Structures are given as C-alpha cells and as structure tokens.
Amino acid sequence: MSQSAPPPQPPQSGPVAGNPYAQQAPAPAPGTPYPGTPYPPQPGAFAAPPAPPAPVRNNLVLGLVAALAAAVAAAALYGVIAGATKHEIGYAAVGVGFVVGVAAGKAGGRNPALPVISAVLALGAVYLGQLVGDAMIIADHFGVSFNEVFFKNFGDLQEVWKKDADVKTFLFLAIGAAAAFSGSRKASR
Q1: Is the Cβ–Cβ distance between 149 and 94 less than 8 Å?
Q2: What's the whole-model pTM score?
Q3: Beta-carbon neighbour count of residue 128 at 10 Å?
Q4: Could you say which DSSP state residue 105 is in?
C-alpha cells in the first residue's frame, strides 16, 4: 500500500519558504487609520454607543390570558392526579400555583397587579382541581360517568367538597396562591 502524497507545488517567492502568510501585507503602523475608515480613532472615544436596554414588558391583558389558560390546564391536571391517587397532594398544589404565576409573569411582565391576579387564579385552579378529583372519585365509586357527577350535579359536588374540607384543604389553597404570587414576581424579572 502506498500513501497518497500532495501534488508538487510551484516554488513560492518570499522571505520564508513554506510560510503561507509570508506574502500578506504588513500590519499598519500604530495610530494609522484602519482600512476603510477615513480618520484614526480619537483618544478617549468609545468604539460604539451602548446597546439600548430591553423594552419593559407590561401587558396586563396578555398576562391575564396566559394565567387563565395555565390555571385551567393545571386545574385539570391536578384533578386527574387527585382523582387517580384518591389523595390531595401538596406538591401538586404548589405546582399549580407556580405554573399559573410563571405564565402570568412571563407573558405579562412587571405589571404589579399580575402577582395578585395570579394568586387569585391559582386559588380557583386548586379549588377546581379538588372538585375534579372529588368528581372522579365519586364517579368511580358509584359507577357513573364523570360528566354526570361534575356537570349535572355540580351543586351536590360542592356540598360534598364543603363537608370534606379540612385544614389541609385550605392549606393547599393557600400554598397554591403563595406559589403563584412568588412565581409571577420571579418570572417577570
């Protein structure tokens, strides 16, 4: 086997044989203008103006819509988790609140009303999730459909929730609201 060899090169002229950079033009002397600029840089001058600051996001309506969409989705997921496990899970309430708060903060920016709005929406989302979970448990226990329990007997479902509510239930509501408030403030930075 033979190794391939590069083709023969024509002889190069220049001060150093074999150096491909030997034929470049020399660098300009210090203090001379750069190629393409008419004047040398002035002493103490900045090279370019600073970039403008990023625009401040402050869109209340967009933040409200994003928080509402996140609240509905998170409530459904929280309800499915509570219904499948037949237990209320505190970390899930934190997740619901945080998702609602982050959605409001990222979409709406630094509007001071958004943390409060996201906390209220998180309260509603955790409550709705608990109702969905209760409806799933009741539907499974009595062998009826979820739609019949949740939509046709919603008043009765709320009465069951009121009777089952304890300190832990209200603690999860408060945790979800607090997570939404802090998540919204942190996401808007």
Answers
A1: no
A2: 0.69
A3: 18
A4: H
